Amino acid sequence: MAKTVLIVEDEKPIIDILCFHLKRSGYEPLTATDGESGLALALGKTPDLILLDVMLPKMDGFTVCKAVRRENAAVPIIMLTAREDESDKVMGLDLGADDYITKPFSVKELLARVGANIRRTSVAREETVPADILVSGRLKVHTGRMEVSVDDSPVDLSQREYDLLLYLMNRAGAVVSREELMHKVWNFDYVGDLRVVDVAVRRLREKVEPTPAEPAYILTKRGIGYLFSGEVDA
Ligand code: CA
C-alpha cells in the first residue's frame, strides 16, 4: 500500500511541486493549507509522514507539531523552515519534529529525507524480534513491545528517541559519534546538521534521566559524541 504523506503548507505552488514529485515517487499525498485542518488530517488520517510548514494561517506549524506529538509519538514530522531563521530549526526539533528542511529546498533532497524518515520508522517496527528486556539501573526497555519505563513508570518516547536509546544501550560503554548516530539512527546517507542529534539526546535525557542536567545514563563526550554509561543486563 502506498505510504501517505501529509503536506501542511499554505503556498499553492509549493504544494503543487510536492504533490507532483511525491506521487511520482509512489507516495499518496494529502494536503492542508492551514494549521487547523492540517492538525485534523494528521490526527484523523494517520499519515506515514508529515511535511509541516512553520508559518501557516489559523495555527502555526510549531503548535501543530506539538499537538500531533501529544497524540501520536511515532509519525515522522519534517518541518519546512525559512532559510534565514536558525532558531526555527531548533525550536521545531525541541517540539518533537524529527527533521527539518530549509526553503527553498531541492526536490531531490526533500525526497531523500522523506524516504529516510519513512524507512526508519518501518524498519524499527519490523526489527524488534526477538523480544528482549534491557535493564540498566532504573531504566527498562522492552524491545518486543517498544516500551521504555523508568522505575516501572512508562515513558512516552518518539520513534527516534526510542531508536537512539536502543542504539546507545546496545553499545553501552562505547563512545558513539554524532555522525554514526546520524547514519544509523536517522538513516541518513549524508551527514546533515548534527544539532538534530544533540536536540534528540536532550529530549531523551529529559524523559529518562533522573536529573537531566547531570545525566547518569547518556553521557556527552565533548567534540566526539555520546556514550551510554552503566551496565546493561539483557
Ligand atoms: Ca507558509
Brief rundown of the structure:
This protein has 234 residues and is α/β, with parallel strands linked by helices.
Would you give an account of this structure?
The radius of gyration is 18 Å and the shape is globular. The protein is 41% helix and 22% strand. The protein is an alpha/beta fold. The termini are far apart. The model has no long low-confidence stretch (mean pLDDT 87). The protein folds into two domains: 123 residues, Rossmann fold; 96 residues, Arc Repressor Mutant, subunit A (Orthogonal Bundle). Helix 2 runs parallel beside helix 3 and helix 6 crosses helix 8. A hairpin with a 4-residue loop joins strand 7 and strand 8. The strands form three sheets. Strands 2-1-3-4-5 form a five-stranded parallel beta sheet, with helices on both faces. Strands 6-7-8-9 form a four-stranded antiparallel beta sheet, with helices on one face. Bound molecules: calcium ion (CA).
* Number of helical regions: 8
Reading the helices and strands in chain order gives EHEHEHEHEHEEEEHEHHEE
- Largest sheet geometry: 5 strands, parallel
Estimated structural class: alpha/beta
- The separation of the N and C termini measures 36 Å
